[in-house]
Amino acid sequence: MMKKLLCVAVVIIVGVFGFFFVRDNIGVSAQKLEADARKSQQINEDWAVSKSCSDKIAAMLFYPESLDDHVFSVYAKDESLSFGYFFKAGGGIFTDDGVAEFKFNSAAAYVSMNKINISKIEVFYNDRTEIIEIDSQKPFAFALPDGAIDANFYDSNGNRVKIIES
Fold this sequence. Notes:
The chain is α+β, with helices and mostly antiparallel strands.
Protein backbone atom coordinates (compact mmCIF):
# COMPACT_ATOMS: atom_id res chain seq x y z
CA MET A 1 0.00 0.00 0.00
CA MET A 2 2.80 2.42 0.94
CA LYS A 3 4.68 1.58 -2.27
CA LYS A 4 1.58 2.34 -4.35
CA LEU A 5 1.08 5.66 -2.56
CA LEU A 6 4.71 6.60 -3.19
CA CYS A 7 4.37 5.76 -6.91
CA VAL A 8 1.21 7.89 -7.19
CA ALA A 9 2.97 10.81 -5.45
CA VAL A 10 5.95 10.57 -7.82
CA VAL A 11 3.66 10.47 -10.86
CA ILE A 12 1.76 13.54 -9.63
CA ILE A 13 4.96 15.49 -8.95
CA VAL A 14 6.41 14.60 -12.34
CA GLY A 15 3.10 15.46 -14.02
CA VAL A 16 2.86 18.88 -12.35
CA PHE A 17 6.50 19.63 -13.16
CA GLY A 18 5.99 18.50 -16.76
CA PHE A 19 2.87 20.66 -17.11
CA PHE A 20 4.70 23.80 -15.96
CA PHE A 21 7.75 22.97 -18.08
CA VAL A 22 5.69 22.50 -21.26
CA ARG A 23 3.88 25.79 -20.60
CA ASP A 24 7.24 27.56 -20.03
CA ASN A 25 6.23 28.62 -16.50
CA ILE A 26 9.68 27.59 -15.33
CA GLY A 27 11.43 29.16 -18.29
CA VAL A 28 11.83 28.74 -22.03
CA SER A 29 14.31 26.08 -23.11
CA ALA A 30 17.31 27.15 -25.18
CA GLN A 31 15.89 25.25 -28.16
CA LYS A 32 12.65 27.29 -28.08
CA LEU A 33 14.12 30.77 -27.57
CA GLU A 34 14.06 31.92 -31.19
CA ALA A 35 10.50 30.69 -31.74
CA ASP A 36 9.37 32.31 -28.49
CA ALA A 37 10.97 35.64 -29.42
CA ARG A 38 9.50 35.62 -32.93
CA LYS A 39 6.03 34.85 -31.58
CA SER A 40 5.99 37.21 -28.60
CA GLN A 41 7.56 40.13 -30.49
CA GLN A 42 5.79 39.39 -33.78
CA ILE A 43 9.03 39.12 -35.75
CA ASN A 44 8.75 38.25 -39.42
CA GLU A 45 9.83 34.68 -40.21
CA ASP A 46 11.94 35.76 -43.19
CA TRP A 47 14.17 37.99 -41.06
CA ALA A 48 17.65 36.66 -40.34
CA VAL A 49 18.81 36.16 -36.77
CA SER A 50 22.14 36.38 -35.02
CA LYS A 51 21.99 34.57 -31.70
CA SER A 52 24.23 33.65 -28.84
CA CYS A 53 23.47 31.69 -25.69
CA SER A 54 25.35 30.87 -22.50
CA ASP A 55 24.15 28.93 -19.47
CA LYS A 56 22.90 32.21 -17.93
CA ILE A 57 21.80 34.53 -20.75
CA ALA A 58 20.76 34.51 -24.40
CA ALA A 59 20.68 37.33 -26.95
CA MET A 60 19.11 37.44 -30.40
CA LEU A 61 19.13 40.16 -33.03
CA PHE A 62 16.60 39.84 -35.86
CA TYR A 63 16.91 41.87 -39.06
CA PRO A 64 15.78 41.89 -42.71
CA GLU A 65 18.19 41.39 -45.60
CA SER A 66 18.14 45.16 -46.24
CA LEU A 67 19.48 45.82 -42.70
CA ASP A 68 17.13 48.81 -42.43
CA ASP A 69 15.28 47.55 -39.34
CA HIS A 70 15.84 45.24 -36.40
CA VAL A 71 14.43 43.77 -33.21
CA PHE A 72 16.49 42.35 -30.37
CA SER A 73 15.53 39.93 -27.60
CA VAL A 74 17.41 39.15 -24.41
CA TYR A 75 16.48 36.24 -22.16
CA ALA A 76 18.15 35.30 -18.88
CA LYS A 77 17.84 32.59 -16.31
CA ASP A 78 16.56 33.68 -12.93
CA GLU A 79 18.81 32.96 -9.99
CA SER A 80 15.93 31.22 -8.26
CA LEU A 81 14.79 27.74 -9.22
CA SER A 82 14.32 27.83 -12.98
CA PHE A 83 15.10 25.42 -15.76
CA GLY A 84 14.91 27.82 -18.66
CA TYR A 85 15.26 31.42 -19.76
CA PHE A 86 12.87 34.32 -19.14
CA PHE A 87 12.34 37.33 -21.42
CA LYS A 88 14.14 40.37 -19.97
CA ALA A 89 14.42 42.97 -22.74
CA GLY A 90 13.52 43.52 -26.36
CA GLY A 91 12.79 46.09 -29.02
CA GLY A 92 15.07 48.38 -31.00
CA ILE A 93 18.68 49.18 -30.22
CA PHE A 94 19.11 52.80 -29.22
CA THR A 95 22.63 53.26 -30.60
CA ASP A 96 24.25 52.93 -34.02
CA ASP A 97 27.76 53.86 -32.94
CA GLY A 98 28.52 51.18 -30.40
CA VAL A 99 27.43 47.97 -28.78
CA ALA A 100 24.34 47.76 -26.56
CA GLU A 101 25.01 45.84 -23.34
CA PHE A 102 22.40 44.10 -21.20
CA LYS A 103 23.24 42.80 -17.73
CA PHE A 104 21.06 40.56 -15.59
CA ASN A 105 22.32 39.06 -12.36
CA SER A 106 25.88 37.95 -13.14
CA ALA A 107 25.42 37.62 -16.92
CA ALA A 108 25.90 40.00 -19.84
CA ALA A 109 24.75 40.05 -23.46
CA TYR A 110 25.63 42.41 -26.30
CA VAL A 111 23.90 43.31 -29.58
CA SER A 112 24.87 45.56 -32.47
CA MET A 113 23.71 46.22 -36.00
CA ASN A 114 27.45 46.58 -36.59
CA LYS A 115 27.31 49.76 -38.64
CA ILE A 116 30.77 50.59 -37.30
CA ASN A 117 32.37 47.38 -38.59
CA ILE A 118 33.22 45.53 -35.38
CA SER A 119 35.50 42.64 -36.30
CA LYS A 120 36.90 41.37 -33.01
CA ILE A 121 35.68 40.57 -29.51
CA GLU A 122 38.22 40.27 -26.72
CA VAL A 123 36.85 38.14 -23.86
CA PHE A 124 38.51 38.25 -20.46
CA TYR A 125 38.63 35.37 -18.00
CA ASN A 126 40.47 35.34 -14.67
CA ASP A 127 43.34 33.35 -16.13
CA ARG A 128 43.30 34.08 -19.85
CA THR A 129 42.02 36.22 -22.72
CA GLU A 130 40.18 34.88 -25.76
CA ILE A 131 39.92 36.63 -29.14
CA ILE A 132 36.81 35.99 -31.24
CA GLU A 133 36.79 37.15 -34.86
CA ILE A 134 33.39 38.18 -36.28
CA ASP A 135 32.14 39.32 -39.68
CA SER A 136 32.49 43.11 -39.68
CA GLN A 137 29.70 43.45 -42.23
CA LYS A 138 26.96 41.65 -40.29
CA PRO A 139 24.88 42.45 -37.20
CA PHE A 140 25.64 40.30 -34.17
CA ALA A 141 24.45 39.14 -30.78
CA PHE A 142 26.94 37.91 -28.20
CA ALA A 143 26.34 36.31 -24.81
CA LEU A 144 29.32 36.57 -22.50
CA PRO A 145 30.49 32.96 -22.04
CA ASP A 146 30.23 31.29 -18.66
CA GLY A 147 33.32 32.02 -16.60
CA ALA A 148 34.15 35.21 -18.53
CA ILE A 149 34.32 38.47 -16.58
CA ASP A 150 34.24 41.13 -19.31
CA ALA A 151 34.56 41.84 -23.04
CA ASN A 152 35.90 44.55 -25.32
CA PHE A 153 34.91 45.12 -28.94
CA TYR A 154 37.15 46.41 -31.74
CA ASP A 155 36.40 47.76 -35.21
CA SER A 156 38.23 46.62 -38.34
CA ASN A 157 40.87 49.34 -37.75
CA GLY A 158 41.66 48.00 -34.27
CA ASN A 159 39.93 50.83 -32.41
CA ARG A 160 38.07 49.94 -29.23
CA VAL A 161 34.32 50.47 -29.59
CA LYS A 162 32.24 51.97 -26.82
CA ILE A 163 29.74 49.83 -24.95
CA ILE A 164 26.40 51.43 -24.16
CA GLU A 165 24.80 50.03 -20.99
CA SER A 166 21.09 49.44 -21.18
